[in-house]
Amino acid sequence: MACAEDVVVDEHLRELGARLQGPARLKSELLTEARHGLLDAVEAYREDGVPPGEAQRRAVVEFGSPAQLLPSWQAELAVGALRGLSLRMLAIAGVGVVAGDLTWRGSSWSGGPRPPAGYLLLADSVDWIWMGALLLSVAGLLVVAASARSPRPGLAVAQRAVGIGLTGVVVLGMVAGCALFTWSLTLWDAALRWPPMLVGLAVAGGAYFSLTRAARNWLLAAARQPAAR
Q1: φ, ψ dihedrals at 101, nearest 5°
Q2: pLDDT score, position 89
Q3: CA-to-CA distance for 102 and 136, rounded, in angstroms?
Q4: Are 71 and 226 spatial neighbours (Cβ–Cβ below 8 Å)?
Q5: Helical axes 52-63 vs 7-18, angle rounded to 10°
Q6: Which candidate, 30, 31, 32, 37, places its Cα nearest to that of 76?
Q7: What local confidence, expressed as pLDDT, does residue 4 receive?
Q8: Closest to 74 measured CA to CA, from 29, 37, 19
């Protein structure tokens, strides 16, 4: 719990926190680290005989204004959001590539007439979307790793490009997946009673919900990030 003498520090941190957007855990870590640094500076001033209120004001001024701090902090949060989206996409797309066909294997209609060419094209498209998602997620993790070593402007552009690509894949995958499932029901009535199909539908729904949240977090963080020059 904050002491009464920490009001100036806490107000400064609240102002910073209100203007930051990104992963909650990383944001909390940034603000906690900042608070520890500010309180250490306040303590140092007080040991030199500076009154408590003035010590806080000096520490805050020395620490930096929101205009000075927010660009680098928001950039770090945007990178963290891209890392989270890339990791989540890598895991989910990996499962999609490996297990996507398992929902159909052994079904009662698998030995029947061949589906229409458009249906087969859509099914292949879903597989290619998952493959593209895998490649983009790996690219995202490589860009994040490179950004940690060298925060160059070109890497900020690459971050946005990969993030936009991953977000687009989420949208495209949801549309294609829903279309494939709906078309499957029109072709085979038994699809809605096929257990692997139902399990796959539930897993896919949870996966896309998770990906949508991660993509939204990245979009919000990237929107607050200053444009690269």
Answers
A1: -80, -10
A2: 95
A3: 24
A4: yes
A5: 30
A6: 30
A7: 46
A8: 19
Angle at which helix 66-99 crosses helix 153-187, to 10 degrees, equals 40
User: Rounded to whole angstroms, how far apart are CA atoms 79 and 222?
Assistant: 9
Strand ranges for 128-229 from DSSP E: none
pLDDT in tens, 170-227: 999 999 988 988 888 888 777 777 777 777 788 888 999 999 999 999 999 999 876 6
Amino acid letter at 167? Answer: T
φ, ψ (nearest 5 deg) of residue 119: -65, -45
Question: By the 8 A CB rule, do 187 and 115 touch?
Answer: yes
pTM: 0.84
Which of 227, 225, 216 has its CA nearest to residue 77? 225
Give 152's DSSP letter: -
Q: Is the Cα dihedral 78, 82, 88, 89 positive or negative?
A: positive
| Cβ atoms of 212 and 177 closer than 8 Å | no
Q: For 83-138, how does the pLDDT look when each residue is reduced to its tens digit (9 = 90+)?
A: 999 999 999 988 877 776 666 665 555 666 778 899 889 888 988 998 999 999 99
Closest CA to 226 of 106, 67, 86: 67
